[in-house]
Write a structure and sequence with these properties.
Blueprint: E1 2-6, H1 10-21, E2 25-29, H2 35-53, E3 64-67, H3 70-74, E4 79-82, H4 88-101, E5 107-110, H5 117-121, E6 131-136, E7 145-150, H6 156-168, E8 172-175, H7 185-201, H8 207-215, H9 218-222, H10 227-233, H11 239-257, H12 265-278, H13 284-303
Parallel strand pairs: 1-2, 1-4, 2-3, 4-5, 5-6, 7-8
Antiparallel strand pairs: 6-7
Helix pairs in contact: 1-2, 10-11
Bound molecules: nicotinamide-adenine-dinucleotide.
Nicotinamide-adenine-dinucleotide binds next to α1, α4 and β6.
Length: 313
């Protein structure tokens, strides 16, 4: 397949590497000076991880081409993944151009974390029905989740096509049923961050304590199963129905007690200092490398199981 990757910063470069590793031709575009060199460097850096995951036949970094002109990049594309800056006026101008230049049936998927597909479609006068959000989780070449969000004008054929493309890349697409700020995963993260910041603000725990609580506690199970099935498995033979019967009321009491912090300059200072203290003496590059290596081992091990791998739609 001929894929256009529009915008080649952090997310675009990772998508480009993933498409290449699956044997696709990628034509990338980004107007910033030095973008091509930065992209080729990033793809080369991602390649060893993709090799460990297993390259598809025909996969090659040589199948990456580059043009600074977005219209030229999408002209013959069969799929477009857009990763430009997260600013409405930039997305508007970019999508007007992509909609004009791409073949009429080519799906235009935006990685946008926060701009709704219906908003993006307003810029597309020609074929808004093939426009949607395909929101990855950083880094897209490692993390399988992609949230697929159709807009008001998106047709079912485009949703089906994009779900198939992401599944064929070994991703785990989840269709979001309603347009919401933050889609699903970032809302869930925001809920956790809200309480974590509140606990720090009230002095109930340090930044390092809360990081330990998640990283050495529930986070381990959350990497394997979602919140509901984890809860179900905690309920013994009675499952989640039993849990909700006896732990439901105390859970509601906790909900009533949860914090609603504001990011005041003082709280921001406390959080930043807390993270600095926690990471004192640790090389951030080594931390990222170890995290990504373990992440990949986990994803591979998980995919090899019969029950934890999850099903693809
Ligand atoms: N960073 C994340 O964790 C993350 C996660 C998921 C989704 N996203 C989304 O992905 C998109 C890109 O985010 P990022 O973090 O890679 O940003 P980034 O700043 O790293 O990259 C944006 C790139 O777009 C380029 N650009 C600017 N104008 C352009 C234009 N007219 N046409 C094409 N490219 C243009 C810039 O030169 C830059 O290379 C955003 O919509 C963001 O919401 C980001």
């Amino acid at each position: 397949m001929r894929v256009a990757v529009v915008g080649t910063g952090v997310i675009g470069a990772s998508w480009a590497a993933l498409f290449l590793a699956h044997g696709h031709d990628v034509i990338a575009t980004d107007p910033s000076p030095g973008a091509e060199e930065a992209l080729r460097t990033a793809v080369a850096a991602h390649w060893p991880a993709l090799e460990r995951a297993g390259l598809r036949s025909g996969a090659s970094q040589d199948r990456l081409s580059f043009t600074a002109a977005a219209g030229e990049a999408v002209r013959g594309a069969e799929f477009v993944q857009e990763n430009g800056p997260e600013r409405t006026e930039v997305k508007d101008a970019l999508f007007a151009l992509l909609d004009e230049a791409a073949p009429p049936r080519t799906v235009l998927a935006s990685s946008s974390s926060g701009i709704t597909p219906t908003r993006i479609q307003q810029a597309c006068g020609r074929h808004p029905e093939r426009v949607l959000v395909g929101h990855p989780f950083n880094p897209p070449h490692l993390i399988p989740l992609v949230e697929v969000v159709p807009g008001g004008a998106t047709d079912e054929a485009s949703v089906r096509a994009v779900m198939e493309v992401y599944s064929s890349l070994g991703r785990r697409p989840v269709r979001v049923r309603r347009e919401l700020p933050g889609h699903l995963a970032n809302r869930l993260q925001a809920a956790l961050w809200r309480e974590a910041y509140s606990l720090v603000a009230s002095g109930a725990a340090s930044v390092a304590d809360l990081d330990a609580v998640i990283a050495h506690g529930p986070g381990l199970r959350w990497a394997l199963l979602g919140p509901f099935v984890n809860q179900h498995l905690s309920g013994g033979p009675g499952g989640i129905a039993h849990i909700l019967e006896h732990l439901g009321p105390p859970t509601e009491d906790i909900w009533d007690d949860l914090g609603d912090p504001r990011l005041t300059p003082e709280l921001i200072r406390t959080i930043v200092t807390g993270v600095d203290d926690e990471l004192h003496g640790i090389d951030p590059a080594e931390l990222v490398a170890e995290r990504d290596e373990l992440l990949q081992l986990l994803i591979t091990a998980k995919a090899a199981t019969s029950t934890l791998r999850g099903s693809t739609p």
